[in-house]
């Protein structure tokens, strides 16, 4: 059933709120009082509830089923975290309160910083970036600020071909040209190519580790040494930290800066596309350039340093960062503890390898050997079947699954990236493997029709994305206005 | 370990199926030297009860704006959030879903983003809006970057009335570009000659309305000056509720409007996550940062929604993207959308009116105190007072009396003596007449 | 897709909780330590969440769509009420705390009592009954206690044929024989029959008003006078109070006792079958027999009277009643206020009559004239079509609606009782009327197959209820045990 | 009026469609004299903000067991409820659905009721259980009514160890029947001769385990005595968590088990709503009160669940029903089911063990105080102390120190001097060792 837009449910004067009368007072709006109506529709509270409940039922979710979306770490989101984030005195704190009235809030940030620096083995952390990409930006800016402080100008950043799209976009925002490093046949940085690209105009290397092929970069320590040798810095995209948290400290690998997606590794909910949170840990070399604000403890009291005289990266965000996500992430860390976080990494890797082992005879892995937290397949197994990666993905939807990540990383043809995460149980994985094998068999048997039609059991079937992009309709318009716009 | 479903038995079985003898065989690509390095100084796993107790203790160590009269604004506002909002955003299907990359099973998210975009466009008086940014400050910086993409000029002017955090975030975001960003300074209520600061290489002028002091201005003349010089007018709105009562930037001639949407549906949460709004003229849409939901049809011809114009975005365009933004503020956008839907036309205007009357009453009561001057004559729900002594210690004294009494100038402009006696005060619908009286009495005492 | 039972998702040693270590102490269990396992399955938290989310999606709900279930008052449940019921200091109060530590809780009960007595115009209220049927029991017990106090023994209670099943069941629990009063052709108490049944062995009459045919009992004042004239009491089933709240005070009608379903009129959520709450208001005559506990105010402080020397009805429930429902109901009342509650009744009646007007030409109403809050139809309109009430109801499910109440009241052949409630908007009613008319047309056109098959778009199709009752399987058993049980 | 979707326009339109001129024409069956009688003394509608503020004030006027160490039991226990429980029961599809009379669109409710019934049967050690009662006390009364239906005898004996509220609710429920209910009295820890109280007309004996004082007993001998005389043994369990550690009533020979299920998943909520558990031998199932979910198949042969054996119930059988119960405790049963599922076998036994150790530690600490005696030697998480002075004022003194220190005998047996010095103390997993120390110190002071 279709759910009409809120604008199609309007009745004049109706509202879903009641307001108190409030004080009488003469207007101070000068001549700036709004003249025309806004155009918002009037709905009652029951209508609003039903509208959004109905919309929600058109969505897939972790709470509903397996969500093996590679590189996105769709794991269980504990409700305890939601609860504590809403406590009075945490959820309702104003960022500009006198610091004497927010000592608990500042302590919380301080504790989170302690967990993050300890788990990564790195001395400093900037909490304020708003998401992973924002953290990358912060990290690259720190690198650029370090060179600026030295009066040195460098032009290139090395980025593997398999990188997340945010990596090159970020480097570009810091004024760096992106120089792509190819992968070797094992799916890792081609060391020879890397060494050839090194030079004193290289500001740094941006590496995801474990990388987007789900593989640990075996030469990572050597890469760090070599980039340091030419005076560059080592930025690590921490999107896949889930695979090694509690097992490996990035600081031990020679990394200078790494963002941490709290919404991946530490399970703050993805919320249909955010909010995320992307704190960045820094090495001693880059710590002086970490942006403010920062919480410091002095004689048992906590201060919020918002200004100092340093050559730091500037303000990343309106206030101190995604505090609501800090609460959730800290609750997640405390719930797992040191022992549990290590188990997280182990189970994430175990689950991915179990899926790899269960599928590799029917769907060739992109690279040989074990994987870390996600298993990568190419579409080679479908060659000649007439079914492509997208068809397989859409058919999975009809089987009740969210598809894996498809066509990423770009370096693998028809890539399928499966990340089960540690919060899935063996029964779920067995069933998923069974279904995947069944689909691959059907594809190989030439049952292409089903894959072309899929999905058919969903609130909508395949969408006309071209039409959406050619003639973008980005908002509702009253019918007359819409007709005009179409003219 | 309540979140982990594997058991010793299942792990052993699975290792066997994989064909390895131990979990660490799966980590054999990791240099042995760094694998399983001992982590010191962190506790082992804790019960839910113990974790909850810890956070309750932390919470108890703060003065909560829900229990203390709160007059702090400055880009984040303490509004009442209907219980329905928080209930709905916690629906599993909203809370635990990912970015809607598979539109067949994400129509819920896509439709509310489409509704959100429409609401933002309507409120700002603009033609199109995107599906959210991190917050108002970063949206402001992105708007400046976008202006340069649009007209390829090399200079941007920031009004002195721009919130210092917006200014700093914008300066930071543009710091490593090859164009210049000039930030002016302004006293409360004073007129700036922004038109005079525009030259032929000016890509954009950024002005906040109401400004950081709370002062409202007619931006029509500035918009005309911008148009005359070929510069874009970027208007920042830190209090989105103002748009229920005040002529929207679009009607005054803005080219890009950025706003902080926290006031609708989003808790203060000590400063984040909030939600950046981003709207502009339709002709600039392909230069916009961020995600866009658009209408289309599915193969059966049914109206549907999908993320569109992806060619602007990093996952397609990589280093040539309009922005590196990826995960944004989806769930906060949903909260905004639900709250705005609950309000509707009549609720939104009534809420804005109530805010304004409350602030006007507060301004009257507070400026009647001996030695206290009102520095902003036209305002929405926030205004600036000048006190007879530095405002920083006064605010601390108020806090001790249990009143969260505004933002002292020293917090926003540290070291600036000329603004040390300023107190920026906001009053929303959550402020009662008793709260105003408490504040007045406490302020009198603090100044005595 | 089927969701396995929790017992089918077991893994030994797995749990969805972590507990603190706690103190060491020697066992004090004597020889009574549990010897065998309980038999509960082990699941992790993510599995538990997914299990119940999946189950929930097999349910229909008010929040999802129109729920015109007659006599059940399925109206909007505000989330504000859920929020305040969970406040620390309300949701977590222990019923046996010293009264000095629960003054806010007692005040809340006192305020609720004030609202209920004021809205009904009756002097006393017992808050403790746990649901509507429990309130009826309380009311009938008060009547019986009053006669016992007078040393008088009566044997009969008069109950209309159209009554809820709880009415006769309740009367029987108080030791009364049930004497059924027929309805007249207008759907109301047949006054002649009523008068004939009166006598000095009649303890009272139990009447629902508005009655279960959705009609106001026009002779109600006369009924009260006549039952009082023979020394009997007038019990009113208040299930349909929603139709008259704020418009008519039951006390003005001569009623001696009436229960109020807080989960109907005052919108505490039905929760899939409770908890409800059934406070009973009493006239002066019955007030002395109202059960304890009761809250009284003395010098600004509140006391909880749990014992006195009276000849009251005894304890109805373990503690003071459904306090959590009191919070919700009071929040609902305050939100509406006096003006809003009157509007509730008016809109409830308006909506029902709108549906009646929209359907009466295709589906004959059971009785002539306007209705109150619900519209009652018989299956006469389907006569000869081969489609029965149940078929129509099940076909409605496929159209996305919860069916109306069917085959109740028993006095109307193939009854269909439609209660829209005041929280539905006109658009929803128009659409429902359109769909109903379409279905009736199809039935009359002889498209019986669809009605026999319906529902087909649901998580399950029609169930074998006979099998369930003949060989009751009321619990899961391990396979061996289940096999044995079947032998 | 935020919950009402009709507007003046829509109302006018609808009245016209109905064919009346005013709303009161629809009320013309109501005697004019009583229609629209003015209602005095109630306020008009209020904003959500104002309502919430009112309840926050009421809440602030109480001492919350979540902030004060809580040692009160007596049939309601302060346990930790995992956040997941409260989240899941608030799913719209559970919270806002009705009794599952249309099973095709209520399988969610029906399946969890089936799971709940199984959990209750397993925990109590019985063959079958129903889908819930109002609470433990009313379930106890219903069990007595059922026993009389089963064996048609005319007398029931209630143990003196039965919680006085259970006793009173049972006496009340059986008050107007034609059989007799005899309530014994018992001192803490003392042995009763229940077997001796059984005669040939005794339908049932009701005994609570652990009893109201906390004392645990082996009911095997009593069960044998009942069997020998043809009476049924009804066992009441006020603290369901005890069943994780203690031999269940079913194993000791109970015929019917009733219990209060509040301890799992259900908040204290000042006494209600709670959830009554009701389990019995399979052969009595057609005499059970309350709803039952049963397994069946749909027309496609898929396993399904449905309310069954309705012929027992009031809506079918009317005055011949086994009980008048209709709406029961569905959502509380769900909360119970979710909490029990989260715990699982290992969690349930660990939780029970933790409760027991905590209570044992508390008993040791408190009974070590001079003049304080422990009256119950075998117990689970609740025990009875005898103080050197009346316990009522002591409890008040403890409350002033912020400790909720148990139930004085005078609260349960008012006017009974022999029990005035008793203090019944419970300690659950929410009690920390610091809480025990605080209690001990406060009690010492109060007794000094």
UniProtKB/TrEMBL annotation, chains B, D:
It catalyses: N(6)-[(R)-lipoyl]-L-lysyl-[glycine-cleavage complex H protein] + glycine + H(+) = N(6)-[(R)-S(8)-aminomethyldihydrolipoyl]-L-lysyl-[glycine-cleavage complex H protein] + CO2. Keywords: Oxidoreductase. The glycine cleavage system catalyzes the degradation of glycine. The P protein binds the alpha-amino group of glycine through its pyridoxal phosphate cofactor; CO(2) is released and the remaining methylamine moiety is then transferred to the lipoamide cofactor of the H protein. Its EC number is 1.4.4.2. It is an enzyme of class 1 (oxidoreductase). This is Probable glycine dehydrogenase (decarboxylating) subunit 1. It comes from Minwuia thermotolerans. The glycine cleavage system is composed of four proteins: P, T, L and H. In this organism, the P 'protein' is a heterodimer of two subunits. NCBIfam families: PRK00451.1.
């Amino acid at each position: 059933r279709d759910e009409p837009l809120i604008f199609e449910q309007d009745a004049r004067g109706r509202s879903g709120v009641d307001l108190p009368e409030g004080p009488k007072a003469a207007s101070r709006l000068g001549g700036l009082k709004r003249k025309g109506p806004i155009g918002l529709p009037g709905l009652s509270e029951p209508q609003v509830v039903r509208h959004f409940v109905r919309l929600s039922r058109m969505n897939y979710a972790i709470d509903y089923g397996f969500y093996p979306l590679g590189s996105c770490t769709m794991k269980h989101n504990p409700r305890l975290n939601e609860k504590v984030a809403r406590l009075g005195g945490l959820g309702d704190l104003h960022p500009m309160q006198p610091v004497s009235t927010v000592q608990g809030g500042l302590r919380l940030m301080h504790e989170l910083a302690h967990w993050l620096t300890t788990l990564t083995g790195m001395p400093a952390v900037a909490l304020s970036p708003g998401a992973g990409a924002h953290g990358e930006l912060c990290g690259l800016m720190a690198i650029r600020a370090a060179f600026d402080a030295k009066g040195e100008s460098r032009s290139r950043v090395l980025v593997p071909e398999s990188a997340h799209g945010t990596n090159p976009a970020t480097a570009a925002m810091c004024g760096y040209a992106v120089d792509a490093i190819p992968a070797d046949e094992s799916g890792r940085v081609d060391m020879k190519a890397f060494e050839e690209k090194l030079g004193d105009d290289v500001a740094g290397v941006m590496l995801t580790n474990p990388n987007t092929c789900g593989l640990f970069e075996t030469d990572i320590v050597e890469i760090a040494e070599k980039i340091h040798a030419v005076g560059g810095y080592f930025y690590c995209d921490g999107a896949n930290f889930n695979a090694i948290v509690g097992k490996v400290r990035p600081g031990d690998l020679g990394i200078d800066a790494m963002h941490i997606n709290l919404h991946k590794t530490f399970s703050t909910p993805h919320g249909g596309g955010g909010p995320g949170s992307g704190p960045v840990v820094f090495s001693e070399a880059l710590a002086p350039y970490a942006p403010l604000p920062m919480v410091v403890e002095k004689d048992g009291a906590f201060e919020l340093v918002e200004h100092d005289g340093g050559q730091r990266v500037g303000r990343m965000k309106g206030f101190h960062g995604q505090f609501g996500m800090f609460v959730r992430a800290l609750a997640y860390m405390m719930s797992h503890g040191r022992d549990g976080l290590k188990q997280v990494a182990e189970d994430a890797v175990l689950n991915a390898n179990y899926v790899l082992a269960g599928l590799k005879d029917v769907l060739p892995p992109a690279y040989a050997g074990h994987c870390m937290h996600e298993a990568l397949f190419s579409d080679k197994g479908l060659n000649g079947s007439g079914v492509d990666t997208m068809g397989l993905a859409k058919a999975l939807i009809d089987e009740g699954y969210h598809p894996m990540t498809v066509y990423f990383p770009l370096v693998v043809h028809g890539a399928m990236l499966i990340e089960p995460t540690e919060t899935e149980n063996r029964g779920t994985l067995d069933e998923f493997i069974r279904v995947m094998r069944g689909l691959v068999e059907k594809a190989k048997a030439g049952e292409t029709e089903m894959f072309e039609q899929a999905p058919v059991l969903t609130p909508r079937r395949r969408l006309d994305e071209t039409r959406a992009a050619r003639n973008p309709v980005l908002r509702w318009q009253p019918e007359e206005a819409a007709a005009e716009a179409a003219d | 370990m309540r979140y982990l479903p594997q058991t010793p038995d299942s792990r052993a079985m699975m290792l066997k199926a994989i064909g390895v003898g131990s979990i660490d065989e799966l980590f054999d690509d990791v240099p042995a030297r760094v694998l399983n390095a001992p982590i010191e100084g962190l506790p082992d796993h804790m019960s839910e009860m113990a974790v909850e107790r810890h956070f309750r203790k932390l919470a108890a160590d703060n003065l909560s704006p829900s229990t203390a009269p709160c007059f702090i604004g400055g880009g984040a506002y303490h509004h009442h959030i209907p219980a329905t909002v928080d209930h709905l955003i916690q629906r599993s299907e909203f809370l635990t879903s990912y970015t809607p990359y598979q539109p067949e099973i994400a129509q819920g998210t896509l439709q509310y983003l489409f509704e959100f975009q429409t609401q933002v466009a309507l409120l700002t008086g603009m033609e199109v809006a995107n599906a959210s940014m991190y917050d108002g400050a970063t949206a402001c910086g992105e708007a400046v970057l976008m202006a340069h993409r649009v007209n390829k000029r090399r200079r941007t002017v920031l009004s002195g009335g721009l919130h210092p955090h917006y200014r700093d975030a914008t300066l930071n975001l543009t710091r490593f570009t090859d164009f210049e960003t000039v930030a002016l300074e302004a006293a409360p209520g004073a007129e700036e000659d922004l038109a005079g600061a525009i030259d032929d290489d000016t890509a954009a002028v950024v002005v906040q309305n109401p400004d950081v002091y709370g002062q409202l201005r007619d931006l029509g003349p500035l918009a005309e000056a911008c148009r005359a010089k070929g510069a874009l007018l970027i208007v920042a709105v830190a209090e989105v509720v103002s748009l229920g009562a005040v002529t929207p930037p679009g009607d005054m001639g803005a080219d890009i409007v950025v706003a902080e949407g926290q006031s609708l549906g989003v808790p203060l949460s000590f400063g984040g996550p909030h939600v950046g709004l981003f709207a502009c003229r339709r002709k600039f849409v392909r230069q916009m940062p961020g995600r866009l939901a658009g209408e289309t049809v599915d193969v059966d011809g049914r109206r549907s929604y999908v993320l569109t114009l992806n060619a602007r975005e990093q996952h397609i365009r990589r280093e040539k993207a309009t922005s590196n933004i990826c995960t944004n503020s989806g769930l906060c956008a949903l909260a905004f959308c639900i709250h705005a839907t609950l309000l509707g036309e009549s609720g939104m205007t009534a809420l804005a009116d109530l805010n304004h009357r409350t602030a006007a009453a507060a301004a009257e009561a507070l400026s009647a105190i001996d030695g206290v001057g009102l520095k902003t004559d036209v305002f929405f729900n926030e205004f600036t007072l000048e006190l007879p002594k530095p405002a920083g210690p006064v605010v601390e004294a108020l806090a001790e009396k249990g009143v969260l009494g505004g933002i002292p100038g020293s917090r926003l402009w540290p070291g600036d003596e000329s603004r040390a006696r300023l107190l920026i005060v906001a009053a929303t619908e959550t402020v009662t007449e008793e709260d105003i009286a408490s504040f007045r009495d406490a302020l009198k005492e603090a100044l005595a």
